[in-house]
Amino acid sequence: MLITEILKAKGDLVFTIAPDEKVSDAVALLHQRRVGALVVLDAHDKVVGIFSERDVVRTVAADGAAALSHSVEAVMTRDVIFAEQTETVDSLLSRMTDRRIRHLPVCEGERLIGLISIGDLVKSKIAESVAEAQSLKQYISAG
Fold it and tell me: Span 53-57, mean pLDDT?
């Protein structure tokens, strides 16, 4: 299955935040939206980072409660790894496992069009396995 198919099924809603927002605002948004990461967009809607729960943990461990007053830009992950629409679920699962990441923005040119999480990929693999098992059951019972 291709990433474009997953995006069609789940939609293109991506929660974003500006780099100059406070960590406390980002944490509130993570909680409110019940997500594990926000894509950080600059004033031109270009992806400049990812802000995840791991970033929160890292900065609070280093700076304590004062971390909440830092800017998102100061603590976000800057080296963003992207997914291409034409990539397969298996290739992204491999990349995410190797790099120990859980969220990949998907862009068309420089325009953000979606976000793929490891949960999206696992859900897709489970659906594929269930469909394959059902197909095999039908084949065996028809045999």
Answer: 96
Q: Is the pLDDT score of 143 beyond 70? A: no
Sorted by where each starts, the structural domains of the chain and their CATH numbers stand as: 3-142 (3.10.580.10)
Asked if 97 contacts 74 with a C-beta cutoff of 8 angstroms, the reply is no
d(CA 65, CA 24): 10
Take residue 119 and report the two structure tokens written for it: 């949960």
The full length of the chain comes to: 143
Taken in order 82, 88, 91, 97, is the CA torsion positive or negative? positive
Q: How far is CA 55 from CA 5, 43, 62, 71, 112, in A?
A: 29, 22, 11, 12, 21
